[in-house]
Specification:
Tumour Suppressor Smad4, 4 helices, globular
């Protein structure tokens, strides 16, 4: 069940049997992709690094995963249909040609993208994805970049924010799409994204 106001989220415990320890969002996504394409259940993930781990408050301490003092948390998953092929992501999807010009679309399940606090209100178990659509000019982008670490770049008239369960994104021409930091398509033309609530068990 996705998080609700007044309800406890998660429980104390270590990584269950069959769980997989990962050190980055990309490693975690690879585990998810392999399981989904094989038609298997996604194993529990022990997070030692990455933007999702940071969002969840993970310390990167492997001993917590083994001695039962970690925290087990249900987490949503993003599903992206890119030019007819289905992919998954844990932390974020970013569609852009460059940072300084052109349209940028970020679909966030995590709060962070590297050093940046891109989606300050994002929660990875609220049954929603946070979408930021950037259409600012280079000068405004430079100013916003300086505020990204603190998450104070929003609200801004050049950044449209939405919280969605599903969305179809119009891409400008053929646009690279990155999932959890890796290029999933170098030249996508069509993109549909939806959330899969409570799809993962993560341990930090």
């Amino acid at each position: 069940m996705t998080i609700e106001k007044g309800r406890t989220w998660g429980e104390t415990g270590g990584l269950p049997a069959g769980g997989v320890i990962v050190r980055s969002d990309a490693e975690a996504r690879a585990v998810v992709e392999r399981a989904r394409r094989a038609g298997d259940a996604v194993p529990p993930l022990g997070l030692l690094g990455g933007d999702l781990c940071r969002t969840l408050g993970g310390t990167g301490h492997e001993g917590r995963l083994r001695d039962g003092t970690g925290v087990r948390l249900p987490v949503d998953l993003g599903a992206a249909l890119i030019d007819g092929r289905l992919h998954w992501f844990l932390a974020h999807l970013v569609a852009r040609r460059g940072w300084w010009t052109g349209k940028i679309v970020a679909v966030m399940n995590a709060q962070f993208l590297g050093p940046w606090d891109v989606a300050p209100r994002s929660h990875p178990n609220d049954g929603r994805l946070d979408v930021l659509d950037v259409t600012m000019g280079p000068g405004e982008r430079w100013k916003a970049r300086g505020r990204l670490k603190a998450g104070t770049h929003v609200p801004h008239p050049g950044i449209a924010e939405r919280r969605v369960t599903a969305i179809q994104v119009d891409l400008p021409g053929r646009c690279p799409v990155r999932l959890d930091g890796e290029v999933a398509s170098p030249a996508a033309t069509n993109l549909t994204v939806r959330v899969e609530p409570d799809a993962l068990l993560c341990v930090i």
